[in-house]
Amino acid sequence: MPSANIDHVIDKPPHHIAIIMDGNGRWAKGRGLPRAIGHKKGADAVRLAVEGCLERGVKILTLYAFSSENWSRPDDEVSDLMGLLRLYIKKEVKTLLKQGVRLKFIGQRDRLDSDIIKQIEDSEDITKNNDKLTLVIALNYGGQAEIVDAVKKIVAQVESNSLNADQVTEDTISKNLYTAEWADPDLIIRTSGEQRLSNFLLWQAAYSELLFIDSLWPDFNKKSLDDAIEAYHQRERRFGAR
Description:
Undecaprenyl pyrophosphate synthetase, alpha/beta
């Protein structure tokens, strides 16, 4: 990956960066530590990513925190992740408020504990007027489920005669996704060397630049972000044109 030119990075940042935060468990295992320590270290990397995006002028940062498939992990690990989420929201919302960060959550909330749902709702309300950066947390999220939910909304509109079936377009689907109010990601980063989207922003990723990096998420820092943005600038985005 090229060495980042910080002036170039700041002058022309991607509007929307999305990150698949992968590798917490492997980071911990490689050091002989419990997986929970890896997840805590991953939360530190989240803070650095948020600070880096603020400093570089990125407007939207979407983080894949917990997928709908992650419920199949061992109960103790799921419990640790949910406890870390509670702690993160409690500790960070005041800082995010001061930083000018708007916090939003996407995903299905039906399997979340009621106290977490309350925390989510309160944090979204507290930060709703911030406009320096929108931090979107994908929680109990799955891209396929998101598209299914969008289709259900559209079907309901057709059945109520507020929309004709022949009026349904790509834009109709986009406007019924969880992410309807934001532009699609310009750059999607996945850490840990894995090269797949893992059911993340499947519709929105149609023309995103994809960047797979070998470092594990707990090792991600502002230099990593600068290198990723510089790599993004080496791409030629044609959106299907020549």
